[in-house]
Structure formats: C-alpha cells, structure tokens
Specification:
The complex is a heterodimer.
Chain A lengths: L7 E3 L4 H14 L3 E4 L13 E4 L6 E5 L4 E5 L4 H10 L2 E2 L7 H5 L7 H6 L7 H4 L6 E7 L5 E5 L11 H5 L8 E8 L1 E2 L3 E7 L4 H12 L7 E5 L2 E8 L1 H14 L5 E4 L1 H12 L10 E6 L5 H8 L5 E5 L4 E6 L3 H8 L3 E6 L14 H14 L13
Parallel strand pairs in A: 1-3, 2-3
Antiparallel strand pairs in A: 4-5, 5-9, 6-10, 7-8, 7-9, 11-13, 11-14, 12-13, 12-16, 15-17, 15-18, 16-17
Chain B lengths: L10 H5 L1 H11 L5 E2 L2 H4 L16 E3 L4 H14 L3 E4 L16 E4 L6 E5 L4 E5 L4 H8 L4 E2 L12 H7 L6 H4 L6 E7 L5 E5 L10 H5 L8 E8 L1 E2 L4 E8 L2 H14 L5 E6 H11 L8 E8 L2 H16 L5 E4 L3 H12 L1 H8 L1 E4 L9 H15 L3 E6 L7 E5 L6 H18 L18 H4 L2 H14 L13 H12 L1
Parallel strand pairs in B: 2-4, 3-4
Antiparallel strand pairs in B: 1-2, 5-6, 6-10, 7-11, 8-9, 8-10, 12-14, 12-15, 13-14, 13-17, 16-18, 17-18
Classes of the chains: A alpha+beta, B alpha+beta.
C-alpha cells in the first residue's frame, strides 16, 4: 500500500484542468489514486499518481426554501454543515466522520462523502446519501466532463447516474460538483434508552418501534444498551415518546433529552465506541432480524459487535482473519473498513457472477483504460 | 398526423414473423404467446394514445424463467423487445414497433413474501401499485409511491419509470423505496440486485436500473420498502389571488420545518373547470394550494396551526382546514377530479417538467404568455412542494393540425422548464414524448455515456431501441449494434 507523500499529488483547481489531466492520464495509461479529503485510509495500491479534488471547493448555490445545495466536490463537509445549520437545515442522512474511527487526519469533503455514499444512523428512517443526490458533474476515465440529473427534487430525464456514481469510490469518475437535497433539522429530539438487553431483544425492540408510525429516526445497540431516537415538533416528540413507552412497557426505559441525545448519536454515528479497540473494523449489511444470529456466529472469533439501522447494519471490531469473519457474517455481507495486520484478502464482499459481470462492464464503460482507483473496489 | 417519428420497421424481421412466433410458441406455454393481429392490436399503444402501432407478437409470461426464455429467443433471432407493464405510460414508453415483440409483466402476479419485522414486501412485478398497499393494509403498512394511475399501473412499470405521486414530497419516489430486484437481461440472463437490507456493498446498479425505461432489462421481481401507516391525515385548502404569493407560501412552508406529505397546486383555469364539474366548493381565485399533513389528532392540529400562521402572513383569500373525514374528501374532491374535469373541456396533453420551487411563479407567468402565443388554453395542476409541474394543454384531436400545435406548445413549456434550472420530466419519463428534447437538457457527451451504458448492457440494442434518445443521436449506436 502506498502512503500519501510517497507519490506525486496533483490538485487541480478547476473542472477543466482536472478533465485535461485525466485525459492525459488516460492517453498515457497513468493510474490514479483519487481522493477528496483522504479521511478514509484505503488507497488503490496500483495507482502511481494521487489526484485530489481538495482545491476545487466552494458552495455554488444554497436555496434553503428549495432544500437545495450545490457544492464543488472539494468543499469541506464542515463548511457545508455550518452553512446549513445557520438556516436550521442539515444533511438528513447524517454522514459519519471517519477520522474518529480511523485516526486519520484531513478534512472530509462533500465529494468524498458522495463517492462513498456515507450515511449514518438516520438512514433507517430517511434514506442514504444516494437518496439525496439530485445531480452530479464528474469527469470520466477518458477525461470527458459529464453531468447527470440537476437541482430539482423530481427528475427522471434519462438514466440516473447520480446513484451509480454515489458509492462508486471514484472508480467510475471523479466527482467535480454535487447537488443535494437538504432538510430542516427537527425542532426536538429524544432518545429512549433500554439497558441490559441482548442483541436479540434489541432487534425485537427496533422492529416493534420501527413498525409504528412514530418515525423512529435511529435504532442502535452496543454493549447491552439499545437506543431508539424520535424527532419532530416538540409536541409530536412528547406524544411519540408516550406511545412508544406504552408499546414497550415490559422493558425498563429511560429517556434522554435534546443535547445529550445529539451527542450520543454523533458518537454512535462515528463509532466512537470502537475508536480505541485494536484490530480490524468490519461493516456488515444484513437483514435486521438476522443480525442477532450473526453476532452469535462472530462470538467465537472474539472482538465486539454493535448495531445500527435497526439491526440492518452490524459493526464488528475484531482480529480474526477475513475468511472467518465473512463466513460468520453470512447471510450478511461484510466490507473491511479498517484493516489490521491479521486481515488479508479482499476488502469488498464477493458478488454473484451476474452482478460481477455487470459491474465490470460498467467500469469498462466509464473507465476503459482502468485508470480510476484501479482495484479499489475489488480487493 | 403527429410529429414524433419512429424508425422504419425492419421488413426482414416482419417477414420472419411465422418463424419467430413458432420459436416462441415452441418454448413457452401456448396461452403465453399472442400473435393474431386482432389480439395484438390491444397492445398497440399506452396512455399516449396519439401514437399507435401493432406489434409483431405479444408474450405474457407467468414466471421469470418464461421471461428469460422469451428474451433469449428474441436475442438469438435479433428481434427488438418492448417491455410493458400495464401500458399506462403517458410518455409512450410502451409504444410497440411493427418489428418488435411486446413482453408484458401483467401475469406476474404473485406476492412472494411480506415481512413487517424487516419492513419489506417481495413480489412479482405485474402486481399493481394499489394492490401492494391493499395487500399490506391488514398489517398496518403501506407502499409509499402513489402515481395517479395506481389502480392500473404495475410495479414493473413503476420501476422502469421511477414513478412518483402526490405523496413523494415526504416519502420519495420509487427509487427511494426499492431494496432489491430480479431482472432479465437482453440475452436472457437472470440477475439479482440488492435484497431485504439497506444499501449496496458494490456499485449501486439498482439505482441505475430504476428509471432506465426498459432500456437495460425487464424486472420480474422486486423487494420494496414498506412503511407503517400514519395514524391519520388531514388536508387544508389555501386560496390566493395571485400565483406568486401561492408560490411564496409553498417555499415558506417547506422552509419552516413542517414537512407536509403533499402540497398540490391548482390554477384559475383548472379551478373553474373543476368547480363546474365537481362542485367541490373551491374559491374563485388565482391559485389554490391543498396541503396535507399526517399524524395523530394532536399532531395534525399542531401542524395545521403552524401552516395557518405561515399562510396568514400572506393574506390568503381563503384558509379552510378539514375537521373530519367528509371535509377531507370535499377538499380532495376537486383535485382528484381535475383530470376528468379537464377532459370534459376537450383533449389535453399532460406534461410533467420540474422546476426549482423559487421559479414556480415565473414559470407559471411564462406558460400563460406561451398559451397566448400558441392560441391554446392551458391549465396548471401539480405537485408544488417539489416543483413538479403538470400543465394540461387543451386541444381538439379532431381538428387537423391541433395536436401538432399542442405538441409545439408543450415543447416550449419543457424548454422553459430546463431554462429555469429544471428538467424535462419529473415522473412520467422520456419515452418517445420528450425524446427529441433530450438535446435541450443534455450535452452530446452526457447522452453518449448513457447510450454507452445501454450498449454495454444490451449490446444488440434490442430493448426499447427507439426511445429516450433522439433518433439521429442514437442512430450510430443502433446501426453499429445491429451490424
């Protein structure tokens, strides 16, 4: 693995400059490691030049009355969150800050967030980053400047490439500008706390709470405690708390209010509970009610597990080898987020033959020379 | 005649009809394959009825494997395929060609799994949109996307067009509620994407397929996200004496943090037509907003009060909130009968361009001016919360030249939508209707990448080949693919 600093870094200031550079690389077969703020540590091992969008920053448009934001890819997420907060708005999908877990430096960017489809606890209620992408501008592997979508809420004009680019980790194109839907921050939030529960009991609580119309916007668990978040207008939150407590009355429940709740969910979002644990960190996507059996299967491997998204997202911190983790995770699929010395093998889970072929053919279409973060999503 | 051209059908394929039908009939149950022109004529158009063409044959499979078999045969024989759900597309998305085989999903009707603990339903895609929510009602759940054709339209068509509806302001459109699917590729290969969990580990191919208008494959099974039913819902009606203030009210509501499930807009032309038709008791003014909120009784009352305060700052000519189920029906009655009421005035063309919410007043003003220039009346009734316009252009189909004038007016409106920062279509899709306007929204390279994707997944360009992209733009790709 290359370490930043060992290879040449190129930081274009404009989209045109970036496109010209990529076109050159395509011609020369020069392989690129593409990054935003470099807060996620994984790098394409095959790349010999580092291309960053960091110097392409700035908010191009923010219309709070339309819930619309357009920003250049290198714009720091902090700046965007600050501007949104000034208008009482936010990115509803709660993107995590990887620096806490990975101990990385650098500044998360809006482009990096979209490229990795970074979505936090509220994803269970409001959807992922990809659901908030209204439009993208990007440079493909031949150096063409392309756009897709736009800035409006509803748009079915042509194929939806914004979704495809979101979560493609720079392997299909370098994002240069993204248009996102913003949402107002809820007036009030509260969290119900369930202590001394097993993973199975936690998922039962989540399934019951998420089957109510009370718009539960967070459902997470670790170390024997389950948390259920409710948000809304202040009267709404009082009412929802009362109804949920009634529904789950056989459990012992405490409630924590606004400020404490906000800090709790920020820490859960950033996996602060695993920040100091040694070893690898795995992200496992699973059907919620299968999560308890996956935790049981992971038990003999040691380490620790936590849940988010009502059980649909399982985080595992442990030192076992990759094959053993993947076997225990089944039927869930495991992605390695923080490698450790003992873990080897592919980072992303294996795909079915059909999906792998589709992915390969799409990569060739966007990047015929195979120069964009080569191998990053494969191994 | 109409102005949208289709490529000349391939006479060599039409000449091979007996051979093609024989191959399909040999491989599939006999009731699955329809080839008598009297019967295939039933599939000659979708809801864009000005354009018709009887297909070569129609296949109505009952299983994914039968769809795959039909696709494999068409692929081997080089025959174009027109995927079809219920045929409710307003954009001509399911318009057949004389040299093409329609593969319909309407007999794929099974509900495969309902799982409320994990909040999903898995089904075959010929199930109608409304049937999904009906199926879920006993469980206290519903499926959120609700296009106005929901009684008839299928989930396959909803996925192909990424359908929306009145409630997507809060719940999103199809792509936001789709967790997984099973799809048959143009060569007959079956692929599963996603599943009953949140998110993808690899590329979000699911997101690419949804809304690809039958260009990349036929979706035969889907896993859909389902939601608990709200405790209650109640609309309010707010009337304004000018369009601009109504537009301002929409923006202020959205900004306030109250998130209504729907904000619908009706202009004066529409209001008058609706009043004489449905007698809904709407005020006679320039614009009416219907805003619906959800929750418990107390939550609803709280939200209505907040919206009343926002509206009152803008001096509405009327503010009426529903107090019971009957009053709710009365408020919705006019909106729901709008299309029927407009139909009484004559034929109409319904467009669905989207504009930024702040550009609504200007767009409405310009549409009024264009109406005078083209000498055709237009009514506006639309989903205001997300800027999704629905101008209805009135014309007389029996008067020669009137359809062409209406189409020209429609094209001007869609160009206007793009010029103010919006798009050609917010929920109906491009189909053939807006195909030739794609160059207005997308630069050549922006379309090229989409056609390259089509070519990568459907190398022979057999799936819906003359849709979405302007014919002259797609011609080199189509010709290279069939060589």
């Amino acid at each position: 693995m290359n370490v930043q600093g060992e290879i040449r870094t190129v930081a274009p200031e404009t989209e045109a400059e970036l496109a010209e550079y990529v076109a050159d690389c395509h011609g020369a077969g020069r392989k690129l490691r593409i990054s935003g703020g470099s807060t996620r540590l994984r790098r394409s091992a095959a790349a010999n030049t580092h291309l960053t969008t960091q110097k392409m920053d700035g908010i191009a448009l923010y219309e709070p009355g339309e819930l619309t934001l357009i920003a250049r890819a290198g714009t720091p997420l902090e700046e965007i969150e600050r501007q949104l907060a000034a208008e009482g708005q936010a990115l509803a999908f709660e993107p995590m800050d990887h620096r806490v877990l990975l101990g990385s430096s650098g500044m998360p960017t809006i482009g990096g967030m979209v490229a990795a489809n970074v979505s936090g606890p509220r994803r269970v209620q409001v959807g992922a980053c990809r659901d908030y992408v209204l439009g993208v501008r990007f440079v493909d592997g031949r150096g063409r400047i392309l756009k897709n979508g736009g800035r409006v809420m509803k748009n079915v004009t042509g194929m939806d490439l914004g979704k495809l680019l979101c979560g493609s980790y720079g392997t299909l194109g370098v994002l240069t500008e993204v248009a996102l839907k913003t949402l107002p921050v809820a007036e009030c939030q509260r969290t119900l706390v369930f202590e001394n529960v097993s993973p199975r009991q936690a998922v039962e609580i989540f399934s019951a709470a998420l089957a109510t119309p009370f718009e539960v916007s967070g459902a997470a668990f670790h170390s024997g405690t389950a948390w259920v978040r409710i948000e809304g207008l202040s009267r709404q939150v009082d009412y929802r708390q009362e109804r949920l407590v009634e529904l789950l009355r056989d459990k012992s429940i405490e409630a924590i209010g606004d400020n404490e709740s906000r800090i709790l969910w920020r820490d859960l979002r950033d996996l602060r509970h695993f920040a100091n644990s040694p070893g690898a960190i795995w992200r496992i996507l699973v059907k919620s009610t299968d999560a308890p059996q996956v935790i049981e299967a992971l038990g003999p491997l040691g380490g620790a597990a936590s849940l988010d998204w009502g059980g649909g997202l399982l985080w595992y911190a442990g030192n076992s080898d990759a094959a053993a983790v993947r076997k225990a995770a089944a039927p869930g699929v495991a992605t390695l987020v923080r490698p450790a010395a003992a873990t080897s093998g592919p980072v992303f889970p294996a795909e079915s033959k059909g999906v792998a072929e589709l992915s390969a053919v799409l990569r060739r279409t966007f990047d015929p020379g195979g120069i964009m973060n080569p191998g990053l999503m494969e191994g | 005649m109409s102005t949208i051209a289709m490529p000349a059908p391939d006479a060599a394929i039409i000449a091979r009809k007996p051979e093609i039908v024989a191959a399909l009939a040999a491989a599939l149950p006999s009731e699955t394959v329809i080839f008598d022109p009297d019967e295939t004529r039933a599939y000659e158009c979708d809801a864009l009825t000005a354009y018709r063409c009887t297909p070569l044959a129609v296949v109505l499979p009952r299983t994914t494997e039968e769809v795959a078999m039909a696709m494999r045969i068409c692929h081997q024989m080089g025959v174009p395929v027109i995927p079809r759900g219920a045929g409710t597309s307003l954009a001509g998305g399911a318009l057949p060609t004389a040299d093409g085989v329609v593969i319909g999903t309407m007999r794929l009707r099974e509900i495969l799994e309902i799982d409320t603990a994990n909040r999903f339903i898995r089904l075959q895609t010929g199930v109608t949109n409304l049937a999904v929510s009906a199926e879920l009602e006993p469980e206290g759940f519903f499926y959120a996307p609700d296009p106005s054709s929901q009684l008839a339209c299928t989930i396959a068509g909803n996925i192909a067009m990424n359908s929306g509806g009145a409630h997507c302001l809060k719940y999103g459109v199809t792509t936001n509620n789709l967790l997984g699917l099973r799809m048959v590729m143009s060569d007959g290969q079956i692929v599963d994407l996603g599943g009953p969990y949140l998110g993808a580990s690899g590329l979000d191919i699911l997101g690419l397929i949804c809304g690809s208008e039958g260009q990349l494959g036929i979706v035969t099974e889907a896993t859909l996200r389902i939601l608990p039913r709200p405790e209650g819902a109640r609309p309010m009606l707010i009337g304004f004496d000018d369009a601009e203030t109504a537009g301002e009210c929409v923006a202020r509501i959205i900004r306030s943090g109250v998130l209504p499930v729907a904000i619908e807009y009706m202009d004066d032309v529409c209001l008058r037509a609706v009043e004489s038709f449905a007698k809904a008791g709407y005020p006679d003014c320039a614009a009416v907003l219907i805003v619906e909120v959800e929750g418990s009784e107390a939550e609803i009352a709280d939200q209505i009060e907040r919206i009343r305060l926002i509206a009152s700052e803008l001096n509405p000519v009327e503010f009426r909130s529903s107090r019971n189920a009957d009053e709710s029906l009365a408020i919705w009655k006019g909106r729901k009968s709008a299309f029927g009421a407009m139909g009484r005035l004559g034929d109409y063309l319904c467009l669905d361009g989207t504009v930024p919410v702040s550009k609504l007043p200007y767009t409405l003003k310009r549409i009024g001016e264009l109406s005078k220039e083209h000498g055709l009346e237009v009514a506006n009734v639309f989903h205001a919360g997300d800027g999704n316009m629905h101008p209805l252009i009135l014309f007389n189909a029996n008067q020669p030249g009137d359809l062409e004038r209406a189409e020209a007016f429609g094209s001007d409106i869609l160009r206007l939508c793009v010029d103010v920062g919006g798009c050609l279509t917010g929920e109906h899709g491009v189909g053939i209707e807006k195909r030739d306007l794609m160059t207005k929204q997308y630069a050549p390279d922006d379309m090229a990448i989409q056609m390259e994707i089509k070519g990568a997944l459907d190398p022979k360009w057999l799936l819906n080949p003359a849709k979405v992209f302007p014919l002259e733009v797609s011609k080199p790709y189509r010709e290279a693919a069939t060589k």
